[in-house]
Amino acid sequence: MAGQVNLAVGCLVWIEDPEVAWIDGEVVAVNGQDIRVLCSSGTTVEAKSSNAYPKDPEFPSCGVDDMTKLAYLHEPGLLQNLKCRYDVNEIYTYTGGILIAVNPFRRLPHLYDNGIMQQYKGADLGELSPHPFAIANSAYRQMINEGISQSILVSGESGAGKTESTKMLMRYLAHVGGRDGGKAATGERSVEQQVLESNPVLEAFGNAKTVRNNNSSRFGKFVEIQFDRSWRISGAAIRTYLLERSRVCQVSDPERNYHCFYMLCASTEEVEKYKLGNPRTFHYLNQSNCYELDGLDESKEYTSTREAMDVVGISTAEQDAIFRVVAAVLHLGNVEFTKGKDADSSEPKDDKARFHLKMAAELFMCDEKALEDSMCTRVIVTRDETITKCLDTVSATLSRDALAKIVYSRLFDWIVDKINNSIGQDRDSKHLIGVLDIYGFESFKTNSFEQFCINLTNEKLQQHFNQHVFKMEQDEYTKEEINWSYIEFIDNQDVLDLIEKVQKSFFPFVTNLNFSADFVDLFILYS
Ligand SMILES: Nc1ncnc2c1ncn2[C@@H]1O[C@H](COP(=O)(O)OP(=O)(O)OP(=O)(O)O)[C@@H](O)[C@H]1O
């Protein structure tokens, strides 16, 4: 859009600003490609006309509830609209059939009560103010009217509010499709209640404090809500993707490891039972100086996580087993290595390392020597023989961390399976609504491989968004025979090539861990 409009004195424009992103003003002089702009802040700036974007003089002061109503669809125009709405507490805005949510960072309970849910029931998309309830309602209606399953994608940067939005979508679906009365009368928990109640458990093991978000989901989640012939919820399944495994043994300041580690260390009884202690004494936690979260009592969190586990059908014995593994992972991280007797070999460094090795083995319920060997040696199987090769201290440490990551991610998968078994799936269901909450990414100098994958998938989503919304608008204009210059939407080949490369290089490794099915699905979803 920039540079395509002839600017004359008196035109209103947007100019990029390094501090506030965009500033608006009026063109007061034009000299070829150079323009002088008197900004609304009172300053005068010189700019190239090719870098200026036209500003709509008739832009309504409270903005518009659908971006496609804007005169100019460029970045400053979209941001201005979102900001105007945000200033009057309107955090939701449509772009065609897509809902944009701006994180309010404070509770707005009046937006989500039962009365509001009731209002959206049956209303057409666009009839009422933009809202996640409207999106969920539209998916539910379309499923009924067209008889086909629906999916809702929730995407955005870390801390943008995806999980909160997902919870609102689920609450609405539970409201319109739930079996109120029925099971509740018998004291049994309904499917929708169980799906909502599984959140605290998943968050305890899959969420962590990051720079952006104190409760950041470090995994992607696809919740499938299944419906019966009378369009009532009859089953559900939670599928999780791409748990950030590297966080188990690598945490950068001021972030934290997964919440469950700190909760466990705060429970006096368990600390004694599992020979734990202050989080500062564990290598997997003390790489960062952040141990506490403002306003959060970890020992209370531990109790509520166990209560939430009761609710989703995880027995007390299973809960004990889960936390035993969490404690074992902490002990494992403290097993340091020193050079062994043979060349390029290694062994536990000292008595302290031996103690943690013994504890880890005890808690994993495995043989101590076998656990040591699994870290200090590598077994190579050839056609003719089996060779056991010693590992030096660096390789043994890498083996230890790999083991911790695999154990933790398997534990997470086990918990998800357990929740799914308890909720129960309706194998006969022909219709479902899927909600995909793909976890947010942050751009750091050294992103982990998991973050790299997420960035790729989000980039694909972004492309999908651009193509879908603006292509839809173009089609609409064509239908109405409005003169509209075509934009050609070309898939970003670089991104496609990169995804292909990642798939090829990553799958053999992933297959070893039995995660291939999830990855294939994920990539199919976005490819
Ligand atoms: N609609 C909302 N109302 C009130 N607070 C919100 C809302 N959306 C987000 N927040 C606040 O922002 C925080 C971060 O939101 P959320 O956890 O949903 O982000 P996210 O996009 O899922 O992040 P990540 O990808 O890191 O998991 C929440 O803990 C909450 O405090």
Give helix % range. 40-55%
What would the CATH topology of the largest domain be? Kinesin
* Structural shape: globular
Structural class: alpha+beta
Number of domains: 3
Average of pLDDT: 84
Indicate the proportion of strand residues: 15-25%
Our measurement of the CA-to-CA distance between the termini, rounded to an integer number of angstroms, reads 29 Å
The set of bound ligands, ions and cofactors reads: adenosine-5'-triphosphate
Poorly predicted regions: 443-458, 484-527
CATH homologous superfamily heading of the largest domain: Kinesin motor domain
Major sheet: arrangement of strands: 4-3-2-1-5
Number of strands: 17
Name of the CATH class of the largest domain: Alpha Beta
- If classified by CATH, what would the architecture of the largest domain be? 3-Layer(aba) Sandwich
The number of distinct helices, counting runs of at least 4 residues, comes to 17
What can you tell me about this protein's structure?
The chain is of the alpha+beta class and 527 residues long. It has 3 domains: 67-247 and 425-437, Kinesin motor domain (Kinesin), CATH 3.40.850.10; 261-421, Four Helix Bundle (Hemerythrin (Met), subunit A), CATH 1.20.120; 449-526. The chain is 44% helix and 17% strand. It is built from 17 helices and 17 strands. The protein has helices at residues 75-87, 114-120, 132-146, 162-177, 182-185, 191-197, 199-206, 259-265, 268-273, 298-311, 316-333, 351-364, 368-376, 393-423, 449-479, 493-512, 516-526, and strands at 12-17, 21-31, 34-39, 44-48, 53-54, 92-95, 98-101, 150-154, 207-208, 216-217, 220-227, 233-241, 337-339, 346-348, 377-381, 386-390, 431-437. The strands form 6 sheets. A 5-stranded antiparallel beta sheet has the order 4-3-2-1-5, with no helix packed on it. A hairpin with a 5-residue loop joins strand 11 (220-227) and strand 12 (233-241). Helix 8 crosses helix 10 (298-311) and helix 11 packs antiparallel against helix 14 (393-423). The longest helix has 31 residues, at 393-423. It is globular. The relative contact order is 0.09. Mean pLDDT is 84; it is low at 443-458 and 484-527. The site of adenosine-5'-triphosphate has 19 residues, from helix 4 and strand 10.
